[in-house]
Write a structure and sequence with these properties.
Order of helices and strands: HEEHEEEEEHEHEEHEEEEHEHEEEHE
CATH architecture of the largest domain: 2-Layer Sandwich
Number of domains: 3
Number of helices: 8
Radius of gyration: 20 Å
Largest sheet: 5 strands, antiparallel
């Protein structure tokens, strides 16, 4: 489908989705979660930018989510978001229904034998702390990931020498029709920052396995991770975390630096001078500013280094009417190609 046709379809979905709320509530009688129309998402994302969700559903628990999905018309787009840390919502908002898991998916329970079960809404850093308390080693790297378990499962999140696929046993998911499935880690097709599970699967919980460890040593490892983040990353800024995936055999930040993009500014968006694989909202950025900056960085790295950087941050939704998105946003600067 051509980009213009796709955006026209998404705009139509945006317009109609609010009207679906009454229909959904009637079809899914007994919903215990909260279903709202036109909810601003800028307060949820760490960038503090973006348009509204045409409908936002916060299910009470997995059974409530299953009931909702079964009642939701198949033509309505569904987008799942978590803590909003690795996310850029475009200024026109997200068409269809946005699902955000909350308290009913935030349980953590050690299982014995070095295993621990966590809901998809659990922050990664809380999982690291719970594992340390249970004297389970091997999950301390989650202390350095500013997101939630659902996002970690979807992208095989990792840091500091560890990644999700290495400590995961199995996941529980709901499909688009609300049916539950339990999948072993081998069935998820994990690769570097990649998961091959169907995109419409919604992760609800996961079982992790570490090794027996001493609480004091695990806490020391977590403290070292914290110190590294505070020293090397702009964690007190409005940022979405690592912007681009590391290409094979190279670090994205080095490529960005060599392409002369450290400190580059577009509108209210800036490439961090502290760590140039981080984009920052300096206070007045729009989502378009941030995406334009990212695409400009990608274009300059491709032109100067011959490497196509791949976004790690999820970009969701549609731009404002008549505005571009994606590679078309890249800027030419100082008379050079973008």
């Amino acid at each position: 489908m051509e980009q213009s046709d796709q955006r026209a379809k998404e705009s139509k979905d945006l317009k109609e989705c609010g009207d679906l709320i009454q229909e959904i509530e009637a079809a899914a009688a007994g919903l215990r979660g909260r279903l709202r129309a036109g909810v601003a998402l800028d307060a949820i994302t760490w960038f503090r930018v973006g348009g509204p969700a045409q409908a936002l559903f916060s299910p009470a628990d997995e059974a409530d989510l299953a009931r909702f999905l079964k009642a939701l018309p198949s033509e309505v787009p569904v987008t799942v978001i978590g803590l909003g840390s690795n996310l850029l919502v475009r200024d026109g908002g997200i068409p269809g229904v946005v699902i955000r898991l909350g308290r009913g998916f935030a349980g953590i329970e050690p299982q014995g034998g070095g295993r621990i079960r966590a809901g998809a809404a659990v922050p990664d850093q809380r999982l690291a702390a719970a594992a340390a308390e249970a004297e389970i080693a091997g999950l301390a790297f989650y202390r350095g990931i500013p997101g939630g378990i659902g996002g970690a499962l979807r992208m095989n999140a990792g840091a500091h020498g560890g990644e999700t696929a290495e400590v995961l046993c199995e996941v529980r998911v709901l499909d688009r029709e609300g049916r539950a499935h339990v999948l072993r880690v081998e069935e998820l097709g994990y690769g570097y920052r990649h998961c091959s599970a169907p995109p419409d699967f919604i992760f609800t919980e996961a079982l992790f396995e570490g090794v027996p460890g001493e609480r004091t040593r695990i806490l020391e490892e977590m403290a070292a991770v914290t110190t590294y983040r505070e020293t090397h990353q702009p964690i007190r800024e409005r940022t979405g975390g690592s912007t681009f995936k590391n290409p094979d055999g190279e670090s994205a930040w080095r490529l960005i630096d060599r392409a002369g993009c450290r400190g580059l500014v577009v509108g209210g968006a800036k490439v961090s001078e502290h760590h140039c694989n981080f984009l920052i909202n300096t206070g007045s950025a729009t989502a378009e500013d941030l995406e334009r900056l990212g695409e400009t960085v990608r274009a300059r790295v491709a032109a100067r280094e011959g490497v196509e950087l791949e976004w790690e941050i999820r970009r969701l939704g549609v731009p404002l009417p008549g505005r571009p998105m994606g590679p078309a946003l890249a800027l030419a600067m100082d008379g050079e190609p973008p």
